[in-house]
Every structure is written in C-alpha cells, then in structure tokens.
Write a structure and sequence with these properties.
Modulates RecA activity. Keywords: Cytoplasm. This is Regulatory protein RecX. Residues 157-199 form the RecX third three-helical domain. One of its GO terms (cellular component) is cytoplasm. This protein has helices at 30-35, 46-71, 76-85, 90-102, 108-122, 127-136, 141-151, 155-167, 175-187, 192-202; strands at 3-8, 15-20, 25-29. The longest helix is centred in the N-terminal third of the chain and has 26 residues, at 46-71. The protein has 10 helices and 3 strands. The chain has 3 domains: 3-102, Arc Repressor Mutant, subunit A; 113-151, no CATH class; 155-202, Arc Repressor Mutant, subunit A. A hairpin with a 4-residue loop joins β2 (15-20) and β3 (25-29). The radius of gyration is 25 Å and the shape is elongated. It has a 3-stranded antiparallel sheet with strand order 1-2-3. α5 (108-122) packs across α7 (141-151) and α9 packs across α10 (192-202). The chain has 206 residues and is mainly alpha-helical. Helix content is 62%, strand content 8%.
C-alpha cells in the first residue's frame, strides 16, 4: 500500500489526513506523521497500517479529547464533534468517548448539573430554555430531565428575582414598561403563567 496524499485538515491545521492507494485514510497530528516518517509515495505494510489504525490514531484522538476537556467541561457530543472536525472516523471517536466515560472524564449528567447551576447563577432562565440549550449540546432528554429534577429550580422565585434586579430602580410602571418586563421574562423561557405571577408579585400595590 502506498501513501498517495497527506493533506492538512481544513478545520484543525495541526492535523493531517493520510490517504492510501486502496482508499483507506486516517488522521494524525502533523508532528506524529513526521515522527513515523510517513511521506507521500512511501509504502506501508499491512502490519504497519494495522498498528497505526489501532494504536497511533486512537492514542492521538484520545489525547486530543483530553486536551479539549482540560479547557472546560464538555458534553460527549461536543467532544465527538471536535474529534470529527479533526478527521477521526466514527469508530475511533466512539472508542475514545467510551474510554473517557469509563474513567469519569466524560459524564453528561454531571455536565448537565453544572451547566444548570452555572447558568442559574450567572444568567437565570427557565427550565425549558435550559433544556433546549442542553439538547443543542447533544444531551439526551432523559439525562436533561434527571438533571433538572435534581436541581429543583424554583422558577417563580427566579422570575421574581430577575424583575427585582432589572426593574427595581423604576417607580412608575406604565403599560409599555410592563410589556418590556413580559418580553424580558418570556425571553428567558418563562411561561405565560409564570410571567404573569412574577409581574403581579413585583408590581407595587395600588
């Protein structure tokens, strides 16, 4: 088998894709390719190719995943997408994700708990909006539900606190301002009944 091309990954410049004349391809960091002395036109034995696919590629993908996780907590989907962007095949990505799950480096439930806690402190919003955000990060519905149940958000209290923080400086509340308050809470994912209740509790008695 011969290497017919070694091309730089378009999304991650430190990684290259090696293409063989039998249409097999694999991705590795550029530095690793140089250390293995892989060059266009050079030949690979079946034994060498199997070693690269089973050991080198997996080790490189796992190392990339660990480095990605070191920056901040990520969901399994986010890690998978990063590895796909680097050119790693699905079978390699799945193997890496599973190995990191086994040692606790990837834990979607823990990720969801911490995501909800952090967002509630920094930018409070309703459960349904948090659920949508977690879903976009590839978290399964059952894990989202478990995390939200465990966090037990008091959405009525959150909505009222948001109004107090944003509108306490006002002393007069006309229809225009009340509409802004409604839009503000709706934008944070609160339901019509939650918005109405929070505004009713917040507005001074006439």
């Amino acid at each position: 088998m011969k290497i017919i091309s070694i091309e730089k990954n378009q999304k991650v410049s430190s990684v290259c894709t090696v293409l063989l004349d039998n249409n097999i391809s694999f991705s590795l960091p550029k530095k690793r390719i140089e250390l293995l002395e892989l060059k266009e036109g050079s030949s690979l034995s079946e034994e060498t190719l199997n070693y690269i696919l089973d050991t080198e590629v997996y080790a490189a993908a796992r190392s990339a995943a660990v480095s990605f996780l070191a920056m901040k907590l990520r969901s399994s989907w986010e890690v998978s997408q990063r590895l796909f962007d680097m050119g790693y095949e699905e079978v390699v990505v799945e193997r890496v994700i599973e190995s990191l799950r086994e040692i606790g480096y990837i834990d979607d439930l823990d990720y969801s708990r911490k995501y909800i806690s952090e967002k509630t402190k920094l930018k409070p919003k309703a459960s349904r909006l948090l659920a949508m955000e977690l879903s976009r990060r590839g978290i399964p519905e059952n894990i989202i539900e478990t995390a939200l149940d465990e966090c037990a958000l008091d959405e009525s209290r959150l909505a009222l606190e948001l109004l107090r923080k944003r509108y306490s400086r006002f002393t007069y509340f006309d229809d225009k301002l009340i509409q802004k308050m409604k839009a503000f809470l709706t934008g944070r994912g609160f339901s019509y009944s939650q918005v109405s209740k929070a505004i009713s509790s917040f507005l001074p008695e006439e």
